[in-house]
Structure formats: C-alpha cells, structure tokens
Task: inverse folding
C-alpha cells in the first residue's frame, strides 16, 4: 500500500512540474547567402517541432536566434557547418535562465482591505517590479476600475477556449465624437514584458491622469492587456511551459495544441510566413479566425473601429516599431505617414535612455508573416495607423527579460505613446 502511495505522489509531482529546458541552448546564427537563408527558412517551416525560432529568418546577414534541444545540438551544428552558416551560443542553458527568472514572478498578495499610500490613494497589487500572473492582472483591473469609475471601466467581452476572461478596458472622460487608440498585449504567451507594459499604461493613464489629462480628455483608449489568456496563464502554471507561445485549444487529428494567434487574422491569411502544421509554433489555425480569442479581438476592434485612429499591438522581443504589411514586401499607399509617426515616436523613446529601435514594415525589416493582427487592423478594420511594437531586448535575455528592466522599458515606451496620442489629438 505504501509503495502505491509513493508512486502516486511521484506521478502527481511529475504532473505538477513545469516543462524543463535543461541543456537547451539558444544559438545565434547568421545566414551569409541565399542558400543558407533558405535552409533556415525550411528548418523554420518544417521542423519547428524541434527547433524553436525565437526570431525568424529574415534576410542575409541578419542574425536569427534558435533554441536547440540537447539531443539535436550536434545535428544542428553539423547542418550549420555544411551550409556555412555562422553560429555561436547565445544562451548556454535555457533552464538556468528560467530558474534565475523565477525570482521575478510576483508572489500572490493576500489582504483583507486595500493598501493606501501616505496620500490616502489606493495602491494596487501590481508594482511592475516583477511579472504578474493573469489572476493578479484581473485583480488590478477590478481595483483600478473601482477606484476610478469616472475614468475607467473593465468589461468582459468574451471568454477564451479554457474559460478565462477576455477583458476590455475603456479609459475615457466621456463625451462623443472623440478619436480613439486601441492597444492589446499578450498575443504570444511567453512575451511577459508585453502585459507588464500594457497594464502599466493603464495605470499611467488612470492613476496619473492629473499629470496629463489631455490624453484622456481628448482620446478614448480601448485596451486589452492579455488577448491570449490561456497561453499566458499556462506559462506561469506549475504544470505549464514558460516558453509556450500559442493558444491552448487542441488541434483535431494532431497531438499538438494551440494556434499562433498572430497568424490567425483574416487579412491575406496564409499567404506566407505561417505554418500549416499543427505542431508548428506559427501554425495558422487551418482557417482564418479559427480561434475564439481571435474572433473576440476582431469583434471588439470592429465595434470601435469607426473612431479608432491607431492600433498598437505590443510584443517582444527585438526593439522594433513595425508597420504593415506583413504578408508582402509592398508598402501601404500611406507608408510615408505611418513611417513619419513611427520615427517621431521612436526618437522620443530613444532620447530617454538611448535604447535603439528599428523602424519599417514587418516584411522588409523582419520577415513575411501573414495573418497578423496589425495587417488586419489596417486592411480589415480600416484603422489608419497600425503598428506592432517589439519591446526590449535584442536577444541577450530574449523572453526572460529581467524584471529590473520592466520600469525602464515602460518609461521609454510611454514617451513614444505620448507622441502617438498627441498626433491623434491633432487628427
């Protein structure tokens, strides 16, 4: 009987342990010619079940970050040598980095009454000195909405596949005829810095309203902090996977779970840069808007699209400010206007700490990626200015950006968002 009890405890422990990445390495590889670029692209499209491309093959002489399992390290190195692809180890042990990052996860706060600052104003469960799970983010939204009902409302606009809330925050002083900005975050689950910025943005607009009332008096803000709540929650779960990217709906006929939401939007869907394989990290879902989460985001954006001038979807990593299109190397007809606003926003961002961002269309600066929310927001919903913002860093830490960088990242990005807001007020 004791033996069975021990075995049961071991099994339970195994089920409750997060996926480990002992011995996994991240290689930075550099394709020097067209052939080596094609080899990496083929590897990305056909073996993403083995090799996790943290950044995608883009152009010749542009580095690519690839996580390689220990069992495939020799095969991978031999392949790089065969096709004369320069490579180096960027992260020697991914699990060691993940373990180091666990200290950056916020501990649950249990309290019977709201904390107050010396000035008597509420203090909230998020302090942006650590990364917070979905329940903590929802608690923050509820607290802030209750404290500032005349500025902020939080609405559940739907539920994810696993039943998590899809929250929409509206920040407004009321009135009609106002232009709007739509912001979302957390479309890729492992990009923790994204919800960390988007929640901070909500805090800045609401809690610090008095410091810059014009941004709320003259603009309605619609913000969805985590649009892939199942995936995001899974990256924190005891039995989850810190580096999970996709949604969590099972794929019929496949042992693999999830769709890449940012390949699932229905504007030039499946026209390159996505995978038709359910096990691929860029799996496009088999049909546009296959995911309930994508459908909810689509319908929410469409409900406010007539007043919305700017759509900003917040990702990581790489430090890019990207414009459509992602499905083609052609430029939008109004690219000059898109580019001009991006340049002025990034200039203000860089002025704070010197952080450098690259600006351009998704395809020409990074890679072809059809089915993205930014392309759909512009081409499908008709929002004039649509951007994907890839936050810090450029790959030293990748998705494990230390929590010490959250507040500096947020402060510089706020400088850029202020430029966007000022332009919207002038439109």
Result:
């Amino acid at each position: 009987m004791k033996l069975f009890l021990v075995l049961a405890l071991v099994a339970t422990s195994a089920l409750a342990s997060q996926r480990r990445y002992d011995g996994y390495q991240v290689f930075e590889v550099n394709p020097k010619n067209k052939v080596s670029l094609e080899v990496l692209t083929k590897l990305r499209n056909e073996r993403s079940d083995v090799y996790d491309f943290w950044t995608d093959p883009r152009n010749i002489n542009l580095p690519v970050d690839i996580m390689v399992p220990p069992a495939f390290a020799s095969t991978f190195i031999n392949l790089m040598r065969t096709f004369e692809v320069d490579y180096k180890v960027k992260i020697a042990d991914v699990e060691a980095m993940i373990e180091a990052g666990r200290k950056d996860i916020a501990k649950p706060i249990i309290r019977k009454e709201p904390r107050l600052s010396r000035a008597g104003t509420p203090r909230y469960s998020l302090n942006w000195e650590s990364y917070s799970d979905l329940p903590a983010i929802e608690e923050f939204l509820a607290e802030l909405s209750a404290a500032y009902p005349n500025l902020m409302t939080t609405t559940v606009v739907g539920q994810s596949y696993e039943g998590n809330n899809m929250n929409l925050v509206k920040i407004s002083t009321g009135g009609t005829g106002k232009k709007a900005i739509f912001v979302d975050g957390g479309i890729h689950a492992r990009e923790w810095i994204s919800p960390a910025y988007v929640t901070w943005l909500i805090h800045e607009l609401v809690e610090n309203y008095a410091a810059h009332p014009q941004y709320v008096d003259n603009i309605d803000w619609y913000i969805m902090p985590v649009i892939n709540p199942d995936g995001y929650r899974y990256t924190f779960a005891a039995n989850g996977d810190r580096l999970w990217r996709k949604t969590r709906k099972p794929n019929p006929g496949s042992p693999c779970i999830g769709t890449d939401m940012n390949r699932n939007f229905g504007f030039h869907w499946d026209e390159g840069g996505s995978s038709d394989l359910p096990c691929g990290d860029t799996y496009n879902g088999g049909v546009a808007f296959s995911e309930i989460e994508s459908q909810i985001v689509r319908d929410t954006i469409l409900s406010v699209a007539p007043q919305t001038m700017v759509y900003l979807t917040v990702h990581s990593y790489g430090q890019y400010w990207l414009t459509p299109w992602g499905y083609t190397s052609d430029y939008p007809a109004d690219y000059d206007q898109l580019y001009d606003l991006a340049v002025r926003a990034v200039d203000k961002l860089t002025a704070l700490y010197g952080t450098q961002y690259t600006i351009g269309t998704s395809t020409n600066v990074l890679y072809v990626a059809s089915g993205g929310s930014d392309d759909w927001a512009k081409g499908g919903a008709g929002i004039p200015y649509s951007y994907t913002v890839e936050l810090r860093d450029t790959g030293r830490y990748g998705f494990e950006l230390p929590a010490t960088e959250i507040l500096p990242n947020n402060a510089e990005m706020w400088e850029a968002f202020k430029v966007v807001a000022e332009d919207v007020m002038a439109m």
